[in-house]
TrEMBL record:
GO annotation, cellular component aspect: membrane
Any one GO BP annotation for this protein: fatty acid metabolic process
Topology within the bilayer: Multi-pass membrane protein
Transmembrane residue ranges: 82-102, 108-127
Major subcellular site: membrane
Record keyword Methyltransferase present: no
Protein's recorded name: Fatty acid desaturase domain-containing protein
Length: 142
């Protein structure tokens, strides 16, 4: 619930993009490889790489066909924009409008452009290799 409220990520879409990424680690087909798209493209634009892939019905069907929607998904969790609005509303109710908006904006910047992309940007360019591919891992982030 918290991830949905703070990001609006639809579970089935996230699973599909994540599985496709692991099916093609840093090779043609990887939806957000810094080795293919460039480090800064992924580090600063991972959300756009993710969104492009998440909108493809064939990706969802192939990589998340085992993820079934339940009533919670159909009526609530599949509606990402509602999550963003509800999350921001709760912040404003809890902190006041000014502080709530500031907290929401800071979270969006930190999560969307720094924290989440670091996993696909920094961790795939710098760090230790665990497998026989180009991906690396940073223990401090992993």
């Amino acid at each position: 619930m918290m991830v949905w409220l703070t990001t609006g990520i639809v579970v089935k879409q996230w699973v599909a993009v994540h599985r496709k990424h692991h099916a093609f680690p840093d090779e043609e087909g990887d939806p957000h490889s810094p080795h293919l798209a460039g480090f800064w493209s992924v580090q600063l634009g991972n959300v756009f790489h993710y969104a492009r892939e998440a909108r493809k019905p064939e990706v969802i069907e192939k990589y998340a066909k085992d993820i079934k929607d339940d009533a919670w998904d159909r009526y609530l969790f599949n509606h990402g924009k509602a999550a963003n609005l509800l999350g921001l509303t709760l912040l404003c109710l809890g902190l006041g409008v000014g502080w709530g908006l500031l907290a929401g904006i800071l979270h969006a910047i930190a999560y969307v452009f720094i924290l989440s992309p670091s996993v696909n940007g920094l961790c795939h360019v710098f760090g230790r290799k665990n497998f026989d591919n180009t991906a690396t891992n940073l223990q401090s982030i992993a």
